[in-house]
Amino acid sequence: MNAKDIFSGIAFWKKTEPTTTNKTVVNDPRAVSRQGGQWGQAYSLPYNGEKDLGEMGPAVNYWLDYDNLRTRSWQAYLDSDIAHTVLNKMTLWMIDEGLKLQANPMDELLETEGFSMDAEKFNDNVEARFKLWAESSFSSHDEMSNLNSLSKEAYKNAKIGGDVLVVLRLKDGDVNVQVIDAAHVKNPFVIPAKSKGNKIKHGIEKNKKGKHIAYHVQTDTFDFERILATNPQSGLEVAFLVYGGRFRIDNDRGMPAISTSLETLSKIDRYKEAAVGSAEERQKIAFAIEHEQFSTGESPLVGTLASAFDAGNSTTSDLPVDELGNQLANTISTTSNKNTYNMPLGSHLKSLESKNELYFKEFYSTNADIFCATMNIPPNVAFSLYHDSFSASRTATKDWEHTMIVERKDFSFQFYCKIYVFWLHIEILKQKVQAPGYLNAVSSKNRVVLQAYRNARFTGAMFPHIDPEKEVRAERLKLGATGADINLTTAERSTEVLNSGDLKSNQEQYAKELDRSKSLGIKTEDVAVTEVLDS
User: Fold this and answer.
1) What is the mean pLDDT of residues 219-244?
2) Do 75 and 11 reside in the same domain of the chain?
3) Count of structural domains within the chain
């Protein structure tokens, strides 16, 4: 559309004279005339979000400078106490000590495919093995940490740096995980022959369909390692990116979660340092003497000042001393508690003060709250400030609970689930886990059976309710009288909520302790739970 087409409707405007409204001349053809002129045809204009020409400035089509964004984001993490606190608190709540596997094979679906299994036996075996592996050092590539520690590093680094590269390897028959800073994923100086026909951008090698084929990692100044994204034998993902944020669909690299707040964080930090610094400097000056025009200029403290002097004798140093014999420095005033000064004519003794500190908290807290909102975390959770009313605290709790559920599910899909799929595949090949029909499904590429076995979720401790009893009573009321006997949770779920370890281990330990109590002659009585709580 050219300018002629856009403004073609204006030619149909018939104007007899400039119209006036409240003695203001109106020459804009878009204005509706009440006195002279009439519309003949509506004109057309492209809408770009701007209603008044020039009010929004030029439209900017951003392209992401990943390297500088990553560098500035890590700089903000170190420089800004707000960013440091919020990101650490998010990692602590989201990942906790590491998310726990809850295997959930779809046994009913497997039966429709002609395979039967004992789901509970499968779950117990898989969950126990995965927990042992995740807590062991051989689950990490360098054998200096474990999967639970790596999960926290992957989450935090993805949020700050934009993305991280996760590589799954096999060593002595065991799966180990390596987390690589995405700053090392770069375009190689020389394109490998194996990459012929593929496109390499920002260190990611893709085929014509856009699928990730390999990642190029800089291991030294001029050395690169080409890491395949998919294992050729199993067809499973063995290298993948975990994202902290995404910009647009066609961007393959991640965007730091705090990208939109980098400039604000920097200015807030400078403001805080300036405010604290100025307050410190003012405290170094106890008071100042103001003289009016008719003042003699005499200092009211002249009688208490002592000047250092030296008669020039190199062997002696005759410095003035006070009544206790202590030497006085050049500009130190000897004062006592609650002194009274006889002020000279036209002189005033004034202490230095500033009201800037009075508004510091309001300014600082307001911007900190805005940053928390961009990170989807309530400020009271981020800064551990729990002094709101019950209604406000409950709203913040439910908001944060929903964020945790969504965020954990997204991270589990990107990180834990892909690791679990590869780990389970290896365990079944090693015949440590019995999965009828799994290997046949691999050879026949039956994705339904494979996904039915691989179905799982990862859970962690949730943010506690302000008043759990009220929450339970509210849910009971929703069920009505007919649902009074329906369980709202399980013993395993309650153990997770209370962060009380593993249910199976707790039950076994309690059984041993109960047998021990009976063997010692300790009587156990059946007491209703309500009686215990009421007491």
Assistant:
1) 94
2) no
3) 3
pLDDT at 7: 45
Regarding whether 162 and 235 lie in a shared domain, the answer is yes
Q: How far apart are CA 320 and CA 331, in angstroms?
A: 12
* Per-residue pLDDT tens over the stretch 449-506: 999 999 999 998 887 776 777 777 777 788 788 877 788 777 777 776 666 666 777 7
Please report which confidence band the pLDDT of residue 331 belongs to, taking 50, 70 and 90 as the band edges. Answer: very low
Residue 106 lies in a domain: no
Cα torsion 378, 381, 386, 390 to 10°: value is 50
Q: Which amino acid is at 296?
A: T
- Of 194, 337, 364, whose CA–CA distance to 270 is shortest? 364
Does residue 173 form part of some domain? yes
Residue-wise over 284-318: b if at least 16 C-beta within 10 A, else e?
Answer: eeeeebeeeeeeeeeeeeeebebeeeeeeeeeeee
Give me the residue label for tokens 């003012």.
Answer: 282
Q: Are residues 194 and 246 in the same domain?
A: yes
Are 240 and 212 in contact, with CB atoms under 8 Å apart? yes
Please name the residues in contact with 5: beta carbons below 8 A apart, sequence gap of 6 or more: 44
Same-domain pairing of 189 and 238: yes
CB 8 within 8 A of CB 43: yes
For residues 81 and 23, membership in a common domain is answered with: no
d(CA 407, CA 404): 5
216 in the same domain as 71:
yes
Mark whether 179 and 38 lie in a shared domain: no
Distances in Å between the Cα of 37 and the Cα atoms of 6, 10, 17, 31 are: 21, 12, 8, 10
Residue ranges making up the domain that contains 502: 471-535
Q: For the chain, what's the residue count?
A: 535
* Residue 388 pLDDT: 74
Summarised one tens digit per residue, pLDDT across range 74-119 is 999 999 999 999 999 999 999 988 999 999 999 999 999 999 889 9
Alpha-carbon gap, residue 230 to 522, rounded angstroms: 60
Give the residue carrying structure tokens 């800037």: 356
Q: Which residue's structure tokens are 């406000």?
A: 392
